Amino acid sequence: MNLKPLQFGNVTIEFPVVLAPMAGYTDAAMRTLCLEHGAGAVYTELTSAEGIRRDSENTFAVLNTSASEHPIAGHIFGRDPEAMVEAAKYVEQTGQFDWIDLNCGCPVKKVVSRGAGAALLKDLPTLGKIISKVRNAVSLPVSVKTRIGFNNDFSDHLEIARVVEESGADMIAVHARLAKNFHGGDPDWEKLGEMKQALKIPILGNGGVQCLEDAERMVEVSGVDGVMIGRGAIGNPWVFDSIRRGPLEAGDTQAVPPASSRLQEKRDLMAEHLKRLVELNESKQQVAGFPKKYTPEEAACIQFRTHIPYYVKGLFDKKRLLMKLATLMSVNSILEEVDLLVEKNMRDE
User: Fold this and answer.
1) Angle ∠(16,20,24) on CA atoms, nearest 5
2) Beta strands 6-8 and 11-13: pairing type?
3) Rounded Cα–Cα distance for residues 234 and 219 (Å)
4) Boundary-marking domain end, from 253, 286, 309
5) How many CA atoms lie within 13 A of 201 on its CB side?
6) Residue 6 · residue 16 · CB < 8 Å
7) CA-CA distances (angstroms) from residue 216 to 1, 14, 210?
8) What is the 3 state secondary structure string of 220-249?
9) Which residues does the annotation mark as catalytic?
10) Domain count, the chain
């Protein structure tokens, strides 16, 4: 990948292929795995400004990070400019984050119904006010995560770019689909290119990148300064390493491990992911200081249910494992089933 280090404010992302913020996925367990496998930077999950304002324990838990997570953005959402300012100040005061990211692209109903997330694309004056007020209230750099529009009636991507830049944002990341389309349909990378041409601040392109070839094509078509990967990294943190390495040279068989080795590596990473989820839940419950419905291990197993279908994608007889997931409430029970699946696929190579 022919990408230069991306700089905005006092932040430098040496390799600007980054992990997108995804609610329910990009907690510290997934973020650390992706950083260790080549991601240039990470974002927290979607964090409610109103939750921070109300001292919500669950909201603060979303902002848990480990010391090794850098560069990292605290990713917040809300509708009220003053609540967003308070949240941004809190994120800065934790001392854990390299920059603050403002969400105006989340299309999920419970966020949009509050006038937040992608709903702000229908109210650009309020979006501009949020960016400006946050920018003036904190010393950390401020970026914006958005889309090319809300729907066909609110889809002026160049106006969105103008408002974001003129309101003081230091960087923008753009999902190249309308909010109404969620993740459906082909991303419009040409519109990313038009935004790139109109902007002086750096732009990350998001949407439709699953592999090296996709990343290369996005950069070629749009000229963006970096690439953001979301669903393509779930169950596949190796995607960042593969993009860092670039295309294999002809005859480079050393770079392609045998299928059995890849299966074992996948199994071992699943075990490590589960271990980190258990540790994360132990930390959360210690901070909470009162009993929870589930033990840390049980909570980790429940959370891992959203990841495991991606890890086992393409494996023969994976349905058997997936149908049993709801009954697997210990790390050992999950790994026993994973081992059976791996063994079966090794035999059937």
Assistant:
1) 155
2) antiparallel
3) 22
4) 253
5) 21
6) yes
7) 6, 17, 11
8) HHHCCCEEEECHHHCCCCHHHHHHHHCCCC
9) 106
10) 2
List phi, psi (to 5°) of 294.
-120, 150
| Packing angle, helices 212-222 and 238-245, rounded to 10 | 60
Has this prediction a pTM greater than 0.85? yes
- The CB density around residue 284, as the number of other CB atoms within 10 Å, is 18
d(CA 75, CA 89): 12
Q: Of 194, 220, 253, which residue sits at a domain end?
A: 253
Structure confidence by residue, pLDDT tens digits, 134-161: 999 999 999 999 999 999 887 699 999 9
Between CA 284 and CA 301 the distance in angstroms is 15
Q: What's the chain's average pLDDT? A: 94
The yes-or-no verdict on residue 349 having pLDDT over 70 is no
Domain containing 142 equals: 6-253
For residue 21 the two structure tokens come to: 């913020």
